[in-house]
Design a protein that fits this description.
By secondary structure, the chain is mainly α. The protein is built from two helices and no strands. The protein is rod-shaped, with a radius of gyration of 42 Å.
């Protein structure tokens, strides 16, 4: 009888230690989550705004390239006209 009582107390001590350990682990876990969620700022990624900004940059670059191509074509036409005038002036006797 006394041996059974000692085994019961021994098992009760082990069960009590397990329960207290689980309670401590859960308390620390939820405390950590609470502190993490309340003390750190949330990082949100603005996917739509970011994509719109990239799209606007691409459109701007394309418009700039188109404008540069038009200016380059005008410059090329002016240079060709100037060269033709110079050739005509040289070939005409004065």
């Amino acid at each position: 009888m006394q041996n059974t009582y000692i085994n019961f107390l021994y098992m009760w001590g082990i069960i009590q230690t397990i329960i207290i350990s689980i309670i401590i682990i859960v308390a620390v876990h939820y405390s950590y989550q609470y502190l993490r969620d309340t003390l750190t700022p949330r990082k949100t990624k603005d996917v739509v705004g970011f994509q719109k900004q990239k799209f606007d940059e691409i459109i701007s670059e394309l418009q700039q390239a188109k404008l540069n191509a038009v200016v380059e074509a005008d410059t090329e036409a002016e240079l060709l006209e100037f060269a033709n005038e110079q050739i005509n002036n040289i070939s005409k006797p004065t």
